[in-house]
Amino acid sequence: xxxxxxxxxxxxxxxxxxxIAITLVFFFWPAFDSLRLSLYRASPFGDRLIFIGGxxxxxxxxxxxxxxxxATSLGFSLVVTVAGLAVALLLASLANAKIRGLALYRTLLLxxxxxxxxxxxxxxxxxxxxxxxxxxxxxxxVTAYQFNWFLKGWVALMLIVIAAIWKQFGYNLxxxxxxxxxxxxxxxxxxxxxxxxxxxxxxxxxxxxxxxVTFFLFTLNMxxxxxxxxxxxxxxxxxxxxxxxxxxxxxxxxxxxxGLQLGYSAAQSVILMLLVIALTAAQFRYAEKKVTY
Amino acid sequence: xxxxxxxxxxxxxxxxxxxxxxxRAATEIQFWHAMTAVLGERxxxxxxxxxxxxxxxxxxxxxxxxxxxxxxxxIAAYRAKQPPHIVQVFEVGTQTMLSSGAxxxxxxxxxxxxxxxxxxxxxxxxxxxxxxxxxxxxxMPFNSSTPILYYNKxxxxxxxxxxxxxxxxxxxxxxxKKLKAAGVKCPFxxxxxxxxxVENMHAYHDQPFADNRNGFDGLATTLKINGPFGVxxxxxxxxxxxxxxxxxxxxxxxxxxxxxxGECGIFTTxxxxxxxxxxxxxxxxxxxxxxxxxxxxxxxxxxxxxxATLWVLRGGKPEEYKGVAQFFKYVASTENQAWWxxxxxxxxxxNSAAKAMEASGHYAKNPNQKTAVVQMSAGKTTPNSQxxxxxxxxxxxxxxxxxxxxxxxxxxxxKQGLDDAVAKSNDVLKEFAALYR
Amino acid sequence: MGRSSVIAHGILxxxxxxxxxxxxxxxxxxxxxxxxxxxxxxxLAPSTHLVQNYADAWTRVGMGxxxxxxxxxxxxxxxGKIVISLLSAFAIVxxxxxxxxxxxxMIFITLMLPVPVRIVSTYQVVSVLGWIDTYWGLTVPxxxxxxxxxxxxxxxxxxxxxLAEAAQxxxxxxxxxxxxxxxxxxxxxxxxxxxILFVYGWNDYLWPLMITNSQEMRTAVIxxxxxxxxxxxxxEWNVAMAAAMMVLLPPVAIIxxxxxxxxxxxxxxxx
Lengths: 293, 437, 271
Description:
The complex is a heterotrimer. Chain B has helices at about 1-20, 35-55, 65-80, 95-100, 105-110, 125-130, 155-160, 170-180, 195-205, 210-215, 230-245, 255-260, 275-280, 320-330, 335-345, 350-360, 360-365, 365-380, 395-410, 415-435, and strands at about 25-35, 55-65, 85-90, 140-145, 145-150, 185-190, 265-270, 285-290, 305-310. Chain B is an alpha/beta fold.
């Protein structure tokens, strides 16, 4: 622990005041309100507020559609994360040579990070458009199958997955490149002298050394896919067809804002809260262990 | 430096947007609506016309997004004690508004301000849908439509079909098959899948949609769409999807994009689509209209009202409500109704207006706009065809459309899909009813 | 080394091409006329209607206003967060005060609950404050987060004590120290945070969607929704793509221009 340097009775409080004020008003107050509202049945205009205890939670946990939504969220997030990281790692490994212009490449790879998921969705919406899009057009030469995402859940999911992976791809690749460049060449040379082939070297040395980066990217991509793809889904599929792309955060928003079932929606927020806490706690624990790595 | 620049920026922004308006001679009335494109322009037009006709009140028509978004905006504003005076709420939100306690009923508003409106002149389907059992109107009818059938004459010619709208589901099936054979991408489709293919089809054939007389006798808690009629309709559509003559185009009115692009041969959607279709098809293709198709073997009912009405929210000032009453009187006048219905394709809301449109030769020049009127007058008013009033109706409709997608994609059998839709909807309805027990 | 270098270049070039293709395609569409958009096979070379489409997109959704709103939100959120978190980190690292641990944990907990999780209730709170559909409502609630505080805290802990001690010996108070010594040292971190937060503020979708109602207050990423061809509108994807291009240009430009700090910032926040 560092030694505190300045002594002042009131200044530190003044310095943290803005952050604490905003945190209290826009974080704690809504969080407690969410907890409170989740125990009620609320009418849209606020004229009726009936206490039902765990009623909303019982309704959620007894609804197979909710578990489907959770499974969709999890599955979607895992696919986006794992596929995204795998491809990025593969390409980064192949590209990891002492080449000039790495900074330039990095720039050219990172820029999709600046595109809002919703905007990425709109672009991909058109690329996939059944009537005018370039992708269905090209695919029509290969197969007569109709890639109609209005009706086929897996097509809609694929569309969202591709748009999400595309958006994150450059970012993942840039990180892996940086991570690979940081691995001392001497370690790998020593291994190759020992007679280990490139694949063996990769799995025995490179991949473990990259695990902090992998872990970091894994958490980041999962969080992104779980929460920030809301814009993507709202702009492109609106949770359909059926409930194929209805992820948890989209459901919570929809039940509150379209369905005007505020207590029910708040209950979903509470469950999401618990999920995030669990995830963050797990991350923190792992990070602590990593420090001694 | 950064900080003061920031505060200057924010202050400038606040001034640009949040500055209280300088005192005006005229009283401002906030009117929040959900109309876009051609219809949005017409709303602005009628507000401007009213503003120009007198100098005491100024109606500010503000587009707030889709119908659900507009409703949410109004609710949020109401909770923040700053509600708009008038909000356009879709028919699906009727029960929510009625139960809310936030509404200033229109019949009361008018009588409180001595504005006389002949409520008996309002066409009976509209009056029946939006009034309480006492026959009093709680909201001001504004844009009412009913679904009708459209067909693309050019595509019909291409498929060798006669220039005539199909009148039965059997006819639709055989014509759609011919269209498909002729290479048409979208032989038959429909917008508003639940509204047209489930809600209206039930009413059109005198079948109940929900219990408690579709919610008119008390809060409904059970749907009845999984009976023999409902299943038969879905079976036909599922078969159509499988055989390729029925193209599903998405929920709500997404499918209209297909008809607008000239891809569909036969299409069912709101009569209000006429305005947009006229503009979009100009110079590209010709089209015609006809009444909704009938399914053989079931009795005659009537199609039901869709669209929206104008609700007045409590929390405003007396002189502002006076202005609202004046605006409503203006909108309800025969002359303005005839104009509004003429340029939008919505139903004329009073019998006088309908007669005026006939007399002026408007229907002779625009025969397509008469289709809806003729369809409604030819129908039979029964307890099942008066309309549907459900709490959380938006969620119910969404639940139905979700299952329709499962049925059309072949994931579920029609009966199973309908049963699941009913189960989910009943759950939602019971939640609402529990609020107001 | 030679051969693997060529392979490396090749792979990176292909990746960049694949990554850029949708954007390139969107750009091409944004230069086409309506007929070209709706005809098959799709053309892959830019056409001549660029000015027309961009002008159309601009006027139809009031793009000027939308971009202004996005700029205000992005700048306010970025600068606001930077200032607030810098001050808090300074206090936490350089002072000892009662309740310090509590303050630290309060700030830390905000990391666990992103906006989507508390949407409905935050909306109620903002509604009670009367901030719906205002700049205040768009920006202030987004400033309640801890990433910046942790970034600065980590960094300040690496600064040698001797600097602060020297300043005290010189008779400088804490604020003087902050202004003259700490701040200049922090510019790299500030720049890094700025990029990340600006992009975040510009692209945020859920929050502005919920709390704005009027078109005048919407931010660009949501405002262009009106241009996406749906339902009864003509399939004017060319105009929609023009709008999309205009909306994604500023954040991408910022990333490209400040990419050195951006990458540093990403790597720093990982720790």
